[in-house]
Amino acid sequence: MKEQQQSLLLSSSARFPPPQGVRLSYGTAGFRADAGLLQSTVYRVGILAALRSLKLDSSVIGLMITASHNKESDNGVKIADPSGGMLSQHWEPFADALANAPSPQHLLHLIIEFVEKENIPLEGARPAQILLGRDTRPSGESLLEAAKQGISSILGAVAIDMGIVTTPQLHWMVRARNKGVKASELDYFEQLSSSFRCLMDLIPSGSTFNEVDYKLVVDGANGVGGEKLEVLKKRLDGLAIEVRNSGKDGGVLNEGVGADYVQKEKVVPRGFSSQDVGIRCASLDGDADRLVYFSVPSESSSKIDLVDGDKMLSLFAVFIKEQLSILNKEGHTDVNSDYQPRLGVIQTAYANGASTDYLRRLGLEVLFTPTGVKYLHEKAAEYDIGIYFEANGHGTIVFSESFLCWLESRNYELSSVVKGSEQQKAALRLLAVSKLINQAVGDALSGLLLVEAILRHMGWSIHRWTELYQDLPSRQLKVKVVDRTAVVTANAETVAVRPPGIQEAINAETAKYPQGRSFIRPSGTEDVIRVYAEASTQEAADSLANSVAKLVDQFLGFSSS
Ligand code: 16G
Ligand code: MG
């Protein structure tokens, strides 16, 4: 590394000393902490983003400043790789080491070592390009400045500020830029609204929809998603969206609002009340990469009927499967129709057992990965059509390039032989879904439009959708322990292989409950062990979760040490 580059790194990093006594970790989805602790981390992630771009032939890399559903005073930072997906796991240890380097000299040493090991071309031979985005958190502005400083401490690196955007918008823009297609926010809105229109135009004429079902009320979590939906909805015909908690009416980000709150607490968010009984409602999280639906069943309580990620997955799977079977119907044309696309469905252990049974009964291949989008997305990408969702509402549909090519040519053939046939419409619908749904990462806005188009296509109310299957009662708890890394899991987090004996004890408890299922895992975002239990009644699920939490405390809690 040349002298000039070394002294640039030393002088700029001296302006961003790391916080004392805190160890930061890249975690499941980037660094997250109290915003006041993050200046140095974000500056260093800026350096990492520039190096990543140089390593990958100057591809565009994304850097997003957000702490998603966490409280407003927190913030965070994560990297999007050139595909629009998450940072390669292979670089996470370097991210951890960078964030925790105690001094400018240590930092420089780490960078020199890494640059050599990875063979990264420095000294401005090629430019590095980084797209920057942030959510609505007040701390975002100064953290963005820190990111810019980090980026400009690598010679020849250029930062392009996209302003306040949702996390999925930034991932989408990174992906689009690297594909060489239009990548502005306007292009994003244009792609979503035109593919939505296309799906709406292809709705079968007999499909019926009640007056009340035309309306959708969305809780924007007082974050960036509500703001963007206000813009997007102006481009949509045939759908009346009312946005509440858009952040303009004085509400606080994620406080008593948002997808995480609604999914975990199962009560109405602020701004919703008994007056909304029967109306289709949805909730976004703070950076709009999660979405859940709900309805208020009765005027007398604040409880909701939750429609979670599992049910969105089921809705998407039913629709895609139906379109594939129409497309592959024997008949009209057999040119190029022998391709059997592989459809896969990916869940985590948090998926309600009833959803997995339902999907398997549909004849679908259901696979499990550990928690965290990076694992689900990677697995989904092994299929021609991979549909993945976490129960918490993060998910999307991933289409393989080869399947999309085949679909384009199939559509072309069908349009010349049997234009306007059901088969051709099925091809067009699948193509529209591939454009509407964000291929880079789960996206509450694009997911919401796909749900709306499919419900309209099926003629289903939110109640009809809820009744696809009945969720098994479940309970989630968290337990503080001395050291959460003492729990090691296997089989997509369903089995605890360490500490020795704990899984046998969990099995013995679980066996006492009809339809009982329970697992434990260390959280990737909080210093706790999470406990999940489900069983045939709510009382049984609660009791199983409590017993397993006690086991965790016995094996690992403060009283055991
Ligand atoms: C992060 C993950 C989310 C996961 C959650 C689990 C991404 C983009 N986000 O928010 O998918 O469900 O962590 O948190 O990957 P936990 O490990 O604390 O339970
Ligand atoms: Mg989020």
Automatic annotation (TrEMBL):
It catalyses: N-acetyl-alpha-D-glucosamine 1-phosphate = N-acetyl-D-glucosamine 6-phosphate. CDD domains: PGM3. Substrate binds at residues 390-392, 521-525, 530. Residues 59-90, 126-178 form the Alpha-D-phosphohexomutase alpha/beta/alpha domain. Its cofactor is Mg(2+). Gene3D superfamilies: Alpha-D-Glucose-1,6-Bisphosphate, subunit A, domain 3, Alpha-D-phosphohexomutase, C-terminal domain. Pathway: Nucleotide-sugar biosynthesis; UDP-N-acetyl-alpha-D-glucosamine biosynthesis; N-acetyl-alpha-D-glucosamine 1-phosphate from alpha-D-glucosamine 6-phosphate (route I): step 2/2. Its EC number is 5.4.2.3. InterPro entries: A-D-PHexomutase_a/b/a-I, A-D-PHexomutase_a/b/a-I/II/III, A-D-PHexomutase_C, A-D-PHexomutase_C_sf, AMG1_II, AMG1_III, PAGM. Residues 214-292, 308-460 form the Phosphoacetylglucosamine mutase AMG1 domain. The active site is at residue 68. GO terms for biological process: carbohydrate metabolic process; UDP-N-acetylglucosamine biosynthetic process. Interconverts GlcNAc-6-P and GlcNAc-1-P. Belongs to the phosphohexose mutase family. This is Phosphoacetylglucosamine mutase. It comes from Castanea mollissima.
